[in-house]
Amino acid sequence: MYKLLTTDGSAKRGQFTTVHGTIQTPVFMNVGTAAAIKGAVATTDLQQIKTQVELSNTYHLHLRPGDKIVKKLGGLHKFMNWDKPILTDSGGFQVFSLTSLRKIKEEGVYFNSHIDGHKIFMGPEESMQIQSNLASTIAMAFDECPSSLATRDYIQNSVDRTTRWLHRCKAEMQRLNSLPDTINPNQMLFGINQGGTFADIRIEHAKAISELDLDGYALGGLAVGETHEEMYHIIEETVPYLPQNKPTYLMGVGTPANILEAVDRGVDFFDCVYPSRNGRHGHVYTNHGKLNLFNAKFELDERPIEEGCGCPACKNYSRAYIRHLLKAKEMLGMRLCVLHNLYFYNTMMEEIREAIEEHRYASYKKTKLEGFEMKEEN
């Protein structure tokens, strides 16, 4: 259940109530692909760094350990020891990125596991069944994510099939939620808008899927090779045709600057691997741009990653020490950088919500973006 609290221009400040708690939006979902945040981050850590929603991956968990095993162990929340909302993506993006290993048909997709090559079939019903076994809070519809280089004809046909698949997802989700052994009978379903960079296809698809009255709607197939300007243009064109009274989720995006721009265009939900991936490589976000802690200039730097930051890394350790850990290939260095980056993202979302509430989002965005472009003097 989504409640729009206030707007500032097109920016929305809302609350999304689920069976696993209320999500304050706009929100950044912390990505734990295989039911864990990469970088040795535990769910007990997530509680401390302001995480509202954890995101896990249907495809990866289906392959390992297997969704039926997760169901036997009581579902993903119990398995991970996490009591807040979890969103599972449908597996579509991963399946469609296996270009040489898959074959698309009307019934679904035949593909080979990237782990051991065994043959797998996944269609709308299978994706819903896997996600029901995982018992996530929010399930994503199974869609095709076409290449950004695909032709207009290919994208139109793909979008039409995604719409047909969405009807099947909705019917299967309703069936699964009514079964007596379903762990989460209140599982929600988000549909996905596709259409590449063709605004007219996006708009028509947004209108078609809005009629299904789902729990939320996502923009998929962006940040896959198009420019930032093209992405912002598509968001601007498409979001007005998605229901204002439902959350809008921009999948797989992005940098802090991408998030600030997308919030300005009406997006509520985000997820991205950047904070954890960059952190594992010693790249950390600050309000004065990104730092590479491998740089020699940090060798004797006794300051925290960012002055005033409340994350576990900044409260306890210096740049010099974290750099040493990274250079020595100690896992703790990677872990501290990931914790800092996730805390940075989650704190930025708090600031965004506050700025929208106080109707000063435009000035907040401007100041924040100017800060990111600064290069710290050392």
What does this structure look like?
Pathway: tRNA modification; tRNA-queuosine biosynthesis. The protein has 378 residues and is an alpha/beta fold. It folds into two domains: 2-272, TIM Barrel; 279-373, no CATH class. The strands form four sheets. The protein has an eight-stranded parallel β-barrel with strand order 4-5-6-10-11-12-13-14, surrounded by five helices. The chain has a three-stranded antiparallel sheet with strand order 1-2-3. It has a three-stranded antiparallel sheet with strand order 7-8-9. The protein contains 15 helices and 16 strands. It has helices spanning 43-48, 58-63, 67-72, 76-80, 92-97, 124-134, 152-177, 199-210, 228-238, 256-263, 274-280, 312-316, 319-327, 331-357, 361-373, and strands at residues 2-8, 11-18, 21-25, 27-31, 54-57, 86-89, 102-104, 109-112, 119-122, 138-140, 188-193, 216-219, 248-250, 269-272, 283-286, 289-292. Helices cover 42% and strands 19% of the residues.
Keywords:
transferase, metal ion binding, 19% strand, 2 domains, globular, alpha/beta, 8-stranded parallel barrel, ArchSynthase1/Queuine_TRR, 378 residues, 3-stranded antiparallel β-sheet, TIM Barrel
Largest sheet: 8 strands, parallel, barrel
Give unreliable regions as ranges: none
CATH architecture of the largest domain: Alpha-Beta Barrel
Total helix count?
15
Q: By CATH's scheme, which homologous superfamily of the largest domain applies? A: Queuine tRNA-ribosyltransferase-like
Q: Which class best fits the helix and strand makeup?
A: alpha/beta
**What helical percentage do the residues reach?**
40-55%
Whole-number total of structural domains? 2
What integer is the average pLDDT?
Answer: 95
CATH C-level class of the largest domain? Alpha Beta
Sheet with most strands: strand arrangement:
4-5-6-10-11-12-13-14
The name of the CATH topology of the largest domain is: TIM Barrel
Binned strand content? 15-25%
Spatial separation of the terminal alpha carbons: 48 Å
Rg from Cα:
21 Å
Morphology: globular
Report the count of strand segments. Answer: 16
Oligomer state equals single chain
